[in-house]
Design goal:
Layout lengths: L13 H9 L9 H8 L6 H33 L4 H50 L2 H6 L2 H43 L1 H7 L3 H38 L1 H6 L3 H53 L5 H43 L20 E8 L23 E8 L4 E5 L6 H8 L7 E6 L2 E2 L5 H5 L2 E4 L8 E2 H5 L8 H10 L3 H6 L7 E2 L8 H15 L3 E5 L7 H15 L3 E5 L11 E6 L2 E6 L1 H7 L2 H11 L4 H4 L1
Parallel strand pairs: 3-10, 3-11, 6-9, 9-10
Antiparallel strand pairs: 1-2, 1-4, 4-5, 7-8, 11-12
Helix pairs in contact: 1-8, 2-11, 3-4, 3-6, 3-11, 4-6, 6-7, 6-8, 6-11, 7-10, 8-10, 8-11, 10-11, 15-17, 17-18, 19-20
Length: 627
């Protein structure tokens, strides 16, 4: 397939490309638009969030009340020796602590429940959207980076939505409540205690500025690590075949160390900031002890007020520490939310029109009328052809006109990169034509829904892909409800039954990752059985015998002959010997159909097909035979 992801990736190696996708553009520390959209995921759970909010208010009120109860106990009952009154206050204090425990437990349970629901909903929505996105998106985005969006970015968003929001509100209320209570008990001592706040504000501002950059870098670096790891695991066979373990290890070490450095830098900020908060808390405690102690000695304050102040001061700086931690969560969630929403906002390049209808049963007439197509880059723009000094799109297919009669087998042949697979993909509407139209039974494929069109089409790829599960599961992939006898019949038609029943578990044999426990030919026979069971009216074969031995090739050819009977078929061929008996052979070169005809007709023309044939067959024969 002729393919380009745009000039931005030109000249990049795999590792460079992964790292380039992992680097994100810096945004704002808080984006109101992103925050409001993320809050929308909580809307279905507003009842539980309301109950959790009410429990949080109770927790805040009880935590503010306990130091004040200690003050009352000291000043009104301990100082006077009133044991009865002291017992009552002690019971109230104990009840407050029990209430704090219960309300906190209930709040945490509700938030955890909501968090898991949001997590599942958001990931499911992302997965559905990834399925809706056109192949052009998956062609231009690295799998590992996309996985990082669905796993890592969604996790930090969920942490903010489920835990962070109420914690931020609760901590803010605690801070405000402590300020009010301390001012009501002793305005002078409260103001002296708050003298450390300007230093706190300055430290927080410095921390926030640096954290914004640091935590955005951590999100970008982990995406690069996941992307590089996924790529290397997928290409492990190639890595080992070319003995490039050391090179790929060094490349991964570079990405991994960059991730380590970014996280160390982010943690260093927290480790510098949190001790500063603790120091200021101890300084405030010292202020209360000194000035409060002097006030008690002068009978200006009671001992209970000073004890309550000490309790409030210790609690005053706890929410500040918590808010500083939540700020990092907010940074990560804003960065992750920006990327996740960008993914959700990415429109499929191939979409059903609002008035699209269901495709009626296909008879098999296929027409391409003046079809031109150019692949688009990751940003959605067409790759420009700069070689001619213009910005015209570099078309992979140009002015293609082709009519395939119902039940006809048409072979597309030509050199690598000529546009053969692209033409087949346009018929299946995996991509949208740039100009012209593709019609099936006289209906423009853009006028029908994609699902109704593809349900009546079958694909046997060049590289057979099997999913995890059993062999039977893979055969019935297109018809999950097919009974076992129909599955077996499809396997017999595909010449797959014999090797399947020879396996230890037969049709229940599990397919390992990548189908490594089956040969390429066996995987291809299973894929043919899958197509047989789906019973498509229109079939696309992408050189199904290019990677198999001669014995398996015979089995595949026999299976395909049965599969093609009565169906319209587009066969993409690299080996001309497999298409000699096709009803029509189209020679594709540089995105155009340059020759059409049957095998003998094209040989007689002495054109491109004749040249390709000589290269594959005549040139490979011994000298006397050529003569």
């Amino acid at each position: 397939m002729s393919f380009s992801i745009g000039t931005s990736s030109a000249g990049m190696g795999p590792g460079q490309m992964v790292r380039s996708f992992g680097q994100e553009v810096e945004g704002r520390a808080f984006d109101r638009r992103i925050a409001l959209r993320l809050l929308g995921f909580l809307r279905p759970h507003w009842r539980r969030m309301t109950v959790a909010f009410a429990l949080m208010l109770l927790t805040t009120a009880l935590s503010l009340a306990t130091p004040y109860l200690v003050k009352v106990a000291i000043d009104q009952y301990i100082a006077r020796g009133d044991e009865t009154g002291l017992a009552g206050v002690a019971l109230l204090t104990a009840g407050a602590f029990v209430g704090i425990y219960l309300t906190t437990a209930g709040q945490q349970y509700l938030l955890s429940w909501v968090g898991q629901q949001v997590l599942a909903t958001l990931r499911a929505q992302l997965f559905r959207h990834l399925q809706d996105l056109s192949l052009s998106y998956h062609d231009t985005h690295i799998v590992g980076v996309t996985i990082s969006r669905v796993i890592n970015d969604v996790a930090v968003i969920n942490e903010l939505l489920s835990q962070g929001l109420l914690t931020i509100v609760g901590d803010a209320l605690v801070l405000a409540g402590i300020v009010v209570v301390m001012l009501s008990m002793s305005p002078r001592l409260a103001l002296l205690t708050f003298s450390v706040l300007p230093i706190m504000v300055l430290a927080t501002w410095l921390f926030a500025r640096r954290a914004q950059v640091a935590y955005r870098q951590t999100r970008a670096r982990i995406a690069a690590v996941v992307g590089d790891l996924a790529e290397d695991i997928a290409g492990m066979r190639v890595i080992q075949a070319f003995a490039q373990e050391d090179a790929t290890r060094e490349r991964f070490d570079t990405v991994n160390q960059a991730n380590r450095d970014a996280n160390v830098a982010a943690m260093s900020l927290s480790l510098a900031f949190l001790p500063a908060v603790e120091f200021l808390g101890m300084l405030a405690t010292g202020i209360v002890l000194w000035f409060g102690g002097l006030a008690v000695a002068r009978d200006e304050l009671t001992l209970g007020v000073v004890v309550a102040f000490l309790a409030y001061v210790s609690r005053f700086f706890q929410p500040i520490q918590e808010l500083s931690r939540l700020y990092t969560t907010l940074q990560a969630a804003m960065a992750g939310g920006e990327r996740v929403l960008a993914l959700l906002d990415t429109p499929p390049q191939v979409q059903d029109q609002p008035d699209a209808v269901e495709m009626p049963p296909i008879a098999g007439l296929v027409e391409l009328r003046d079809v031109t197509f150019a692949y688009r880059s990751a940003d959605g723009s067409s790759g420009a052809d700069h070689s001619s000094g213009t910005d015209e799109p570099a078309a992979a297919v140009r002015d293609v006109n082709l009519t395939i009669a119902p039940g006809q087998t048409v072979a597309l042949v030509g050199p690598t990169g000529a546009g053969k697979t692209t033409i087949a993909n346009l018929v299946a509407r995996f991509y949208e034509v740039s100009e012209g139209a593709v019609l099936v039974d006289g209906i423009d494929v853009r006028q029908v829904t994609q699902r109704s069109l593809r349900r009546q089409m079958g694909l046997v790829p060049q590289d057979p892909f099997l999913f995890s599960g059993t062999i039977a599961d893979n055969i019935r992939f297109g018809r999950p409800d097919a009974p076992d006898d129909i599955v077996e019949e499809a396997a017999r038609i595909a010449n797959a039954h014999a090797f399947i029943v020879a396996l230890p578990d037969g049709y229940a044999t599990r397919v390992l990752e990548g189908g490594v426990n089956l040969s390429v030919g066996q995987r291809q026979l299973v894929c043919i059985a899958r197509a047989v069971l789906a019973d498509p009216r229109l079939l696309i074969l992408d050189e199904a015998t290019s990677s198999v031995d001669t014995v398996t090739e015979v089995l595949i050819q026999e299976a395909l002959a049965r599969l093609l009977t009565g169906r319209t078929a587009i066969v993409i061929a690299h080996r001309l010997g497999t298409v000699r008996h096709a009803d029509l052979i189209c020679v594709v070169d540089n995105g155009r159909i340059v020759e059409q005809g049957r095998h003998e007709e094209l040989l007689a023309q002495g054109g491109v097909y004749h040249t390709l044939y000589e290269r594959q067959f005549v040139a490979a024969m011994p000298g006397p035979a050529r003569a």
